[in-house]
Amino acid sequence: EIAKRIPLLAEASERELEAFEQFAVLKTFAAGEQLAFEGDSCPYFFVVLKGRMRVYKIGESGREITLYYVDPFESCVLTAFCILSQTPLPAYAVAEETLEMVVIPSGEFRKWIDRFPVWRDHTFNILSRRLGEIMATIEKVAFLRVDERVAVFLIQALPPSRDVLAITHDKLARELGTTRVGVSRVLEEFEKNGWVSLSRGKIHIRDRHALQQKAKNTLLM
Predict the structure, then answer these.
(1) Of 139, 137, 136, 104, which is closest to residue 123 (Cα–Cα)?
(2) How much is the pLDDT for 120?
(3) Which long-range CB contacts under 8 A does 135-139 form with residues at least 24 apart?
(4) Is 181 helix (H, G, I), strand (E, B) or coil?
(5) In what order do the strands lie in the sheet with 44-50?
(6) What does pTM read for this prediction?
(7) Domain 3-142 sits in which CATH superfamily?
(8) Per-residue pLDDT, 62
(9) Domain residue spans in the chain?
């Protein structure tokens, strides 16, 4: 049963489980597959079971910025917003990895929000958590220099137990909503300072303390 794979349904009532089994459908998407475009309607709500989804915006210049990722047993806050407000999706979504998810028709999901506490609580949880992340992303883009944003990203992406991040300059630029040239210039400066070393598709942290100092005034944003 699909329900047994979803932790949030561990304490669901019999009525909640019956409704889930009746309407939930398992779907799989290939890595790199476009899942949604800005302006799309939202025909279903979903819970990711395996893989990762990237949710992002594209500016008028064509530059991308990552808003957040949706990982296993999570749902997309903007999809929930789209369904509940019955407005178009305000972002793009792509399968970052091979993606397996369970989908629920949006009409049924709206009913479940009213009837079933497990889905109401899940929705409020993702709303409260993700909206804070989105606001933090907007603040960083609006108020931080590129070098500060790169330092913050590296510190947050790599726990102290790791010192190598597999990421291209192009992908890092998309994460931060800036240009590849700008990211490369910053990383080259960091390398010159001895803070990082660069190899093809990888960034090696050499001086975590220096990066933390660069990021220290921004990590609380």
Answers:
(1) 104
(2) 93
(3) 136/221, 137/65, 137/66, 137/67, 137/68, 139/221
(4) helix
(5) 25-29, 99-105, 44-50
(6) 0.76
(7) Jelly Rolls (2.60.120.10)
(8) 82
(9) 3-142, 145-215
Alpha carbon distance, N-terminus to C-terminus of the chain: 42
Distance in angstroms (rounded) separating the CA atoms of residues 27 and 154: 33
Handedness of CA 127, 132, 137, 143 (dihedral sign): positive
Q: How far is CA 93 from CA 56, 68, 134, in A?
A: 6, 10, 15
Q: What is the pLDDT of residue 221?
A: 45
- Amino acid found at 195: W
Residue 219 has a pLDDT of 52
The CATH number that domain 145-215 falls under is 1.10.10.10
For the chain, 221 residues long, the average pLDDT of each consecutive 10-residue run is 88 92 96 96 96 90 88 94 93 96 96 94 90 80 84 88 91 90 94 94 93 72 45
Using DSSP's 3-state secondary structure scheme, residue 216 falls into coil
